[in-house]
Amino acid sequence: MTFPLADVSDSVIRLISAAAPLLSAIRIAPDRHITGLYFPGGMIVTAGHALPALESYTVVLPNRTLVPALAGPRDPSSGLATLQIDDDVAIGFPDIGQATPGRVVVLLGADADASPTARLTLVHRVIHAVEGQVAVLDLSAGALDPGSAVLDPYGRLIGIAALGSAGEAIAIPGACVERIVRARQNGASTKPLPRPAPVGFASSRNGRGWLGIALQPITVPDQLIARAGQAKGRMVVNITAGGPADRAGLRVGDVLLSLNGSIVGGDHGLRNHLADERIGSEIEVRLLRNGNLVTAHLVVAARP
Predict the structure, then answer these.
(1) What fold does the segment set 209-302 form as a domain?
(2) Separation between Cα atoms, residue 127 and residue 141, nearest integer Å
(3) What is the pTM of this model?
(4) Could you tell me which of 106, 102, 160, 95 has the C-alpha nearest to residue 134?
(5) Model pLDDT for residues 216-235, shown as the tens digit of each residue
(6) Domain boundaries along the sequence of the chain
(7) Which whole-number Å values give the CA distances from 91 to 18, 22, 41, 57, 150, in the listed order?
(8) How far apart are CA 303 and CA 207, in angstroms?
(9) How far apart (Å, rounded) are the C-alpha atoms in residues 247 and 263?
(10) CATH of domain 4-185
(11) What angle is formed at CA 164 by the lines to CA 163 and CA 165, rounded to 5 degrees?
């Protein structure tokens, strides 16, 4: 007895496995994320309408590593947005597929830990636009994961899932994605990436203590909560060269958990560690680095 449906299912699973290295999860708020596609050169592309305008973000890569990402240029003509990370990948750019009404497509998204999620649907119709053939998907807007890769049965990139101007689920053409990625690789980007200003542990500049570090609140991945002993932390997104944090060996991407045994919380608690009387004192910092617990000791300096 043959099982044609089983063959279809196995084909979809193989397609997902082959394309999964493209996936990243972009954290846009506590317990909220969208999918981004991760390309060579440390470039991540996603649906612009779903990405809030921030200077920096936390991204979960396909290997479950958390890394900071900076806002890159947005492309108003296509509706795509980009992020930049200090990393690179070996996977090449996928082949581009064509949108055709009736074609079966797989929407490959990223869960919170960047593991794959999948939906199977059809191209309902095609809109002929200046940027290429825009696929309208047979999918409700509420079921859409913005930024997902829309793949044809051969694993070719039809486009990136997004909401259209009429509120329908669409795929921004893969040709647009390729154009943006190739332009960046060729050095054609004209907009510099913003970088967060180096600050102390607190975002406030009222205190005189300084550690030469910029932080962003994040949610600790579920699989690391038991090890960390808490669900929240702050990721290092920038370090001032020669500052206290740099001298203590902290790295961009570290997740700070506690200071002198106190869980890293709001700015008020952070300022207590940076008061005038703390200058010259040592702080024990507990942090996550590549999933492992690390302890470092920093000396509070006067703000330059």
Answers:
(1) Pdz3 Domain (2.30.42)
(2) 17
(3) 0.64
(4) 160
(5) 777 787 788 888 888 888 88
(6) 4-185, 209-302
(7) 10, 8, 10, 23, 17
(8) 9
(9) 23
(10) 2.40.10.120
(11) 125
DSSP string covering the chain = ---HHHHHHHHHHHHHHHHGGGEEEEEEETTEEEEEEEETTTEEEEEGGGS---SEEEEE-TTS-EEEEEEEEEETTTTEEEEE-S------PPPB----TT-EEEEEEE-TTS-EEEEEEEEEEEEEETTEEEEEESS-GGG--TT-EEE-TTS-EEEEEEE-TTS-EEEEEHHHHHHHHHHHHTT---SPPP-PPPB-SSS-S-SSEE--EEEEEEEPPHHHHHHHTSSEEEEEEEE-TTSHHHHTT--TT-EEEEETTEE--SHHHHHHTTSGGGTT-EEEEEEEETTEEEEEEEE-EE--
Q: Which residue has the tokens 């952070």?
A: 270
Banded model confidence at residue 199, pLDDT cuts 50, 70, 90: very low
Please write the tens of the pLDDT for every residue from 1-16. 566 788 889 999 999 9
Written as six digits, the tokens of 274 are 């940076």
What the block records as the tokens of 287 is: 């942090």
Between vectors from CA 302 to CA 297 and to CA 304, what angle results, nearest 5°? 120
Question: What is the average pLDDT score of the chain?
Answer: 83
